[in-house]
Each structure stands twice: as structure tokens, then as C-alpha cells.
Amino acid sequence: xxxxxxxxxxxxxxxxxxxxxxxxxxxxxxxxxxxxxxxxxxxxxxxxxxxxxxxxxxxxxxxxxxxxxxxxxxxxxxxxxxxxxxxxxxxxxxxxxxxxxxxxxxxxxxxxxxxxxxxxxxxxxxxxxxxxxxxxxxxxxxxxxxxxxxxxxxxxxxxxxxxxxxxxxxxxxxxxxxxxxxxxxxxxxxxxxxxxxxxxxxx
Length: 203
What we know:
By secondary structure, the chain is an alpha+beta fold. It has helices at 2-12, 20-23, 28-31, 70-78, 84-87, 89-94, 100-114, 118-139, 151-154, 162-171, 174-184; strands at 18-19, 34-41, 49-54, 198-199. The protein folds into two domains: 2-57 and 95-199, no CATH class; 64-94, no CATH class.
């Protein structure tokens, strides 16, 4: 299962994917930070399960532990508790691009998608993707140069400039774009026999 999750990270544009079984082992505080991305079956199993990610960016983060010695950093890690998810400077800094409005909008889109209301799902997920781009730009979490390109252009999905398309992919929300692409590749309409989950591919 770990291999299935690892191979699918590229598809969703995330660094980490957790199975439902692994997520259920976490503390309630940790679970509250995980984002339900999709519901899938994996190769070798017909059981549908939710998959999750932990949203975090390291680009542009002024890590608190960089100012500590290795010994002190290791001592701090030994003192981690469930409350650290809400108080640790590094974890908070790596998630500053994740707003409550974004999570709510993504969740609306994901739920529409799972319910087979794909037209509404695509609208919500595209909105969530643009919200992520705006926040990343506003917070300075930018890995690539965007000089010469206005935020308005980067938020315009109809702009066909190659650099705009590339940067939208880099700055946007991988899971939102993954689900939108899956639906649009099938005409934007859920199949008649849509059961609220899909086979997970690693492409």
C-alpha cells in the first residue's frame, strides 16, 4: 500500500499520500491537518478507501530549527506532542499557504465530485486552485520567478501562454487540478454507474 501511495504522489502533485488505514492511526490533532483528496481503489484490492495528504511547502520558509544546533533540534523532536501540530513554528510556517477558505472550497468541490455532480465540482475545484495561486503569491511562497506576469494573468485559465500555463501548474493546487483533469477528460459529466470512487492509477 505504501508503494501505491508513493507512486501516486506525482499524479496528485503532492509530496505525501496516506491511505485511510494509515490516517486512522493518527491522533485527532494530526487527523485534523490531513486533507481528504479522493476515494479510490488500488491495484489488487476492490475496497474503496479515502486517501489523504498533509499540505506543506518548504520553499520560502524561514525554518525556526535552522537557528538551533542538531542536539537541541533532536531534543525538541523528542518532546513533540499532539499539540505540536498547532504550535510548532516549522509546521505552521510550512502551512501558511493553506487557508480555511481554500480548504472549505476544495472540500465542496471534492464532495460534489464524489457525489457525481461534476459540473459543480469542476467550478469549485478551479476556484480552489486559483485561491491557492493567490495565497502562494501573497505569502511569498514562490519557488520560480514570476516577474513580468501579473496575478491576473496567472489566475486566467484561458491564457494559453506556455509560461503562464507552466506557472499555474507550479503554483496551483495539484489535487484540485488532478480531479478537474480526471473529470474533464471524461466530458465533465459523471458516468451513469458512478459510485463515488475510482481506480487509482500511478501515471
